[in-house]
Each structure stands twice: as C-alpha cells, then as structure tokens.
Design a protein that fits this description.
Chain lengths: 494, 209
C-alpha cells in the first residue's frame, strides 16, 4: 500500500504542474471562445486561432464622445478610417492606428452655400480614384457625394424612372463606386439588386439581384400559379429573393452578401461588370456548415452575413451577425479561419455590423457595444496566409515549407494537406502525394498521384510482370492439356 | 446424365440462365451450406465495396464503422426476400419450399457478389479515366443477377413468365410491408425498454434515498 502511494506521488505532482501550466496558458489567451475549423468531412474540430482580438476602440479612445450605434466602417486609400456613426448623425474619420479622430463630418456645405446635416447615415465609401466621399444618408433618402473638406458635389435622390417603382421608398443603406465612377447603392426594401447610377447621377438600372432559391415549395407554387386566375395570383405571396445587404468592391469585381436566415443560395456573390455571379457554381457554404441550435433561446443560429470585405491579398472576410463570427476565405473560397463570438469580452460582439481590413488586421464595428474591435494576425495566421497566397499563385513548391509549418501547429488543418499533396505531386513524389491527398480527401489529386505511381511501378517492374504473365500462360496451357488428356483416358477406360 | 457435384451445379446454374435452375430442380440438387456461404460473401463484399475502394474513386467516412447498415443491406434484405417470396408464392400455387427459394436465390446472387470483389480489386489498379470498366462490370453483374433471380423464381415455383413477373412485384411489396413492421416493432421495443429502464432507475433511486 505504501509503495503504491509512493508511486502515485510523482504522477500527482506532474499532473498538478501540468494543470497549473494549462491554467496559466488559458489565462493569457483572452479569446472569448475556442477557435475551430472544419475537417475534410465538414465536421467542426478544434483548431488554432488565426486572429486574436487586440483591443476594442470606443469613441472616447479617439478623443471624441461615444459612438451611437455605428453601422459602417471604411478604410480609404490614404489609410484613414471612416466610421458611419449612425445614431450621432455623423461620419468620423480616424487615423490608421485608431488613436485619434482626424475629422468629424456632421454638416456639409451644399453647392448653393447652405448647410445640410445628416440623418442616420448608415454607409460610407471613399473612392480611391476621385477621392470623394459617398455617404448613404438613409433617413434623408439621399446619397451625398462630397469632397473630404465637406463640400457636397452631388446629391442623389429617388430616381424618376420607369424602372424604379415610384411607390417604393428610397432608403440608401450602403454605397460604393467603381473605377469608372458608377455609383452602386443598396436600398432598403428593394429586392431587385443594387441601384446603379452613372457618374453624373442619372439612374441606370439595378445590378446583381439574387436568384430565387429553387425549393420544393417554390416549384410547387409555380405549377399552381399556372392554373390560377389573375386575381388569385395577385393575392398570393410572391416568391422574391432577399435583397442584398452589403457589398465591397475589389478591382473589377463587386462582392455582395445577403443577410437572411432562410436563404442559403447567393449569400455571398462575386459579380463581374455584367452582373454575373462567378461563385454561382462553387460548392461552398458560407458561414457555419451545420448551424448550431441555441437551447437557451430556442433558435437555430443560421448564418446571416451582414458585411463582406476583400483584403489586399484577395482574402474574403465575411461577418456573420448571428454568431458574431468572421469567416475568412481565400480567393478561391477555401475556408481559412473562423474568429469571433457572441460575448461580452474583447473579441466578442453583441451585434456585429460592419467589417473592414487593413494590411493584416481586421476591424469589426459593433452597433450595440458601440466599439470597433481590432483583430491582429497570430503567427499561425501569418504562416497560413503566406502558404495560401503562394499556393493560389500556383507556386506549390514554395508553399510546401509554410504548409509543413502549419501542420506542426495544427495537424488537422485541411488546406495544408491539400497544399502538401499538390506540391509533392508536382515534385514527382507520388507516394507522399497519395498519402496527403488521402488525408485531405482530395480525390482528384489522389487520382493524378496514383496514375503517376502506377506508371512508375509498371516502368520499374515491367520485366517481372511480362515474365510472370508468360510463365503463367505456359503453366496454364500445360495444365489444361494435362487435364484434357486425363479426361480422355478416363473416358477410354470406362 | 447431369451427374454433377454440388459445386459443379453452382457453376452450371450460374452459366445457364434459362434452363440451369430447371435442371437443378429436376435433379433435386442444391446445397444450403453453399447458399449461406454466398450470403456471407455478399455481406463482406458490401463492406469491402464501401470501405476498401481505391481512394481515387471515393473516400468513405472513416471516423466511425457501424456494421448494422451492412447487415441490413445484405443478410436481412436477403432473408426478407426469401420469406416474402415464400409467403407470396405459397398463396399463388408455387411449388417451391422455403429451403429451395433460399438456395436458388442465393445462387442467383453470385454474379453480383463477384462484381463487388472484382470492382474493389480493380479500383486499386485503375484511375478515374478508366472508371468505365468498373461501370461495365457493375452493370453486367447486376443485370446477370437480375436475370438469374427471375429464372430462379420461375423454376423453383414452376411458373409462367408473366406469373413470375407478378410474383416478383408482389414479393417486393411484401418485403416493404415486412420491413415496415420490423421498424415498427423495433420502435415499440425501444419504448418498452425505455419504460422498464426508467422504472428500474426510479426504484434504485428510492432504495438508495
């Protein structure tokens, strides 16, 4: 009994040391939730964090009074942050480190010299081409285009056009402009896409409407409608898609997102100039694959992507309001990281409203906490970004080193297996490529690697195979002859 | 004439789809042991087909292995077919006994079972571009088994062509009914089990407190 106890003592001390170590580690990492990622079967598994919340910036931190339900953030070409401070009816410009407010726009000078103030502005954009500010002045039903000194250059109000239903309200939510100066406005209560205006302010039409999801109900209603009278048809609920919620412009492409808890198609789109969705045939689920069921609120946490942001390196950041999570994808829509949570600590949100990126950092506006949360990349995140960027450029061999490093931190990281398999395949290490392709469930890569391995095997062993086949044929022929002869002998005997 | 051993009869029945089973019946041949062996091979073949396939074609969900679905899709399905066919054809003046139905049906499954194993082996040799060979083998295996199964039912009950077709359709209906009842029974047993376990837990709790 005594010896048994003695044996336990070192084990217990070791456990205590380990446990205290574990506690100290968790205490230093202040993330309000465990980070996770999806494995090759689409199951959520624990993973390393790609981002950590560094700090939450309030209005006081910028040297001004508090924000009041801010709803948009935009980082301009000259590295200034423009925050649409909706409840305070102003636009706040802050420097890139979010230490000081550079300028507060609460009133603008109209071309005729009169002053005008904003009423619940919910979107702001600064064009890198003509350096003008575009403000979605929601409650005033207009979009203001002003220079950075606060002089209004143009005002866009409800268009007088056959295409635009005059009974509908004109409530600009978000605004952006492309290289040519065309202005795109997301309107509340409009489901036919973003309103598009020429640089001169004339209404062109709608751009980038969502498709209707072909559910069984909609197909059934379509056939029922064929047999209905005109009056009955008019009274039925129409199947209209949800209107787009937000967008971001990146070069020639406009990325849109749609916040809807019921819609699952077209929640994130990449539109070219003609309005065609490049992601239409991608088999990607944006947001959580299988939404969590929240027992305390009796609610399925279906993803509702309220903002989208394209980083400098082409990564797509999507902000999910329901779960308070940022889903980061690379340019080919492969999931990289999931960050954030619904929580009270730094790094958690009450109601995430807008998202912006600058260099490696992410900035998230919370319209209930009235803060801007700054996320910085971890070392793991840096390695993954480096590897993914090299991989997407097609430089598989150069990405090999970073991918191995990623696997050291997180042996379950799905993209790393794909990256290594592709690199090994290109290097001609078919056996290794097969191993990693199998781990990644990448059938296509495995197939190519297997083809190479088979070719190698045949080349190396062709002599043996040929000799083996010949020997088998000779033996089989001899055996057949022997059997036939025996049979004949038997028949002759009987 | 036709003095074949049991294993030779298996080969004869499989390679003579039209008259093979008739001859077998005439000679009162067929072994229950071989039939069970075939069904066992079918069971392992289904597992191999799902788990050991070449990774260039498809990678299965390897996190869990549950044997029940494989038992259901091989052994239980076969048993239900045999019982269902026996139940239907006894009413339709069929001459087959349960034993004979079992033997003949199992013999008819041989091409399908062979196809499973051949495809698993070939899937480790072929690449995606050559997957048409797998498809051809699969189609031949299934088609051959369908023809043999029809012929087996026809000769075991001594039916005409049309009557066999009707019997097969009725058998499928009977199978569905039986499976439905099985599921129902399992659900009820589960309910009873939950009830008993709750009562036992409650009693144990009362004794303890």
């Amino acid at each position: 009994m005594k010896s048994k106890l003695k044996r336990y003592i070192p084990a217990v001390t070791a456990f205590a040391v380990l446990a205290s170590f574990g506690i100290s580690v968790t205490a230093s990492a202040a993330a309000p939730s465990d980070s996770y990622n999806y494995d090759r079967w689409g199951d959520a598994i624990p993973s390393q964090a790609g981002y950590t919340a560094e700090r939450a910036v309030t209005g006081y931190d910028l040297g001004i009074d508090a924000f009041n339900s801010p709803s948009d953030i935009f980082c301009s070409h000259d590295r200034l942050f423009y925050i649409a401070d909706t409840g305070n009816n102003r636009i706040v410009a802050a420097d890139e480190s979010l230490e000081n407010a550079v300028k507060i726009y609460d009133s603008f000078t109209m071309p005729d010299g009169s002053k005008t103030s904003l009423n619940k502005p919910s979107g702001v954009f600064v064009s890198p081409e003509n350096k003008n500010m575009y403000i979605a002045d929601t409650e005033n039903s207009r979009v203001l285009i002003a220079d950075t000194d606060g002089n209004v250059l143009m005002e866009i109000t409800k268009p007088d056009s056959d295409i635009f239903d005059s009974r509908k309200t004109f409530l600009p939510q978000k605004v952006t402009a492309d290289k040519a100066g065309n202005i795109y406005i997301v309107l509340g209560n409009i489901t036919t896409g973003a309103a598009m205006f020429s640089p001169e302010g004339s209404f062109i039409g709608f751009y980038g409407a969502n498709r209707v999801e072909p559910t069984a109900k909609i197909i059934r209603n379509y056939f029922r409608n064929l047999f209905m009278s005109e009056e009955k048809r008019a009274r039925r609920t129409r199947s209209v898609p949800t209107g787009i919620t937000n967008f971001d412009i990146d070069g020639d492409f406009i990325f849109t997102c749609t916040a809807s808890s019921s819609q699952t198609t077209d929640t994130v789109k990449k539109l070219n100039a003609a309005g065609n969705n490049i992601f239409a045939n991608y088999e990607v689920t944006f947001g959580d694959y299988t939404p969590m069921y929240d027992t305390s609120r009796n609610k399925v946490m279906a993803p509702s992507i309220v903002d989208i942001d394209i980083a400098e390196d082409g990564n797509i950041n999507c902000l999910d309001r329901t779960t308070g999570r940022i889903f980061q994808y690379d340019e080919d829509c492969n999931l990289l990281f999931i960050t954030g949570a619904i929580a009270h600590q730094t790094g958690g949100f009450d109601q995430a409203a807008a998202l912006e990126s600058l260099d490696e950092d992410l900035y998230v506006v919370d319209s209930v906490k009235n803060t801007v949360t700054v996320f910085t990349e971890t070392d793991f995140g840096k390695t993954v970004h480096k590897a993914a960027a090299l991989y997407n450029e097609g430089r598989y061999e150069e990405a090999l080193g970073p991918w191995y490093e990623v696997l050291k931190s997180d042996g379950n990281y799905h993209r790393a297996h794909i990256g290594i398999a592709s690199a090994l395949l290109r290097q001609g290490d078919y056996k290794g490529a097969m191993k990693y392709a199998k781990l990644a469930d990448a059938g296509k890569i495995y197939n190519k690697a297997f083809e190479g391995r088979r070719r190698e095997f045949l080349k190396a062993n062709f002599g043996y195979i040929l000799a083996g086949t010949a020997a088998f044929a000779v033996i089989a022929a001899a055996a057949a002859r022997l059997i036939r002869r025996r049979k004949k002998e038997k028949e002759a005997e009987s | 004439m036709m003095d074949l051993t049991e294993t030779q009869w298996v080969r004869y029945a499989v390679t003579h789809p039209v008259e093979g089973f008739d001859d077998m019946r005439w000679k009162k041949s067929g072994s229950l042991k071989i039939a069970f062996l075939i069904v066992g091979l079918l069971f392992f073949g289904e597992i191999a087909d799902d788990r050991l396939f070449g990774a260039q074609f498809f990678i299965s969900y390897e996190r869990i292995f549950n044997v029940v679905p494989y038992i259901v899709q091989s052994i239980i399905l076969f048993a239900v077919w045999v019982v269902g066919n026996w139940a239907v054809c006894t009413l339709l003046d069929g001459e087959g006994t349960m034993k004979n139905i079992c033997i003949y049906s199992a013999y008819a499954l041989i091409p399908y079972v062979a196809q499973l194993y051949i495809n698993v082996i070939l899937s480790h040799v072929l690449i995606r571009d050559e997957s048409v060979f797998l498809d051809i083998i699969r189609i031949i295996g299934i088609g051959w088994t369908a023809v043999l199964l029809f012929s087996a039912i026809k000769s075991v009950h001594q039916y005409s062509f049309l009557k066999t077709a009707a019997a097969v359709l009725l058998t499928i209906a009977a199978m569905l009914i039986m499976l439905f009842l099985l599921v129902l029974m399992l659900a009820l047993l589960q309910q009873i089990w939950i009830f008993i376990s709750t009562v036992v837990t409650e009693i144990i709790y009362r004794i303890k407190v």
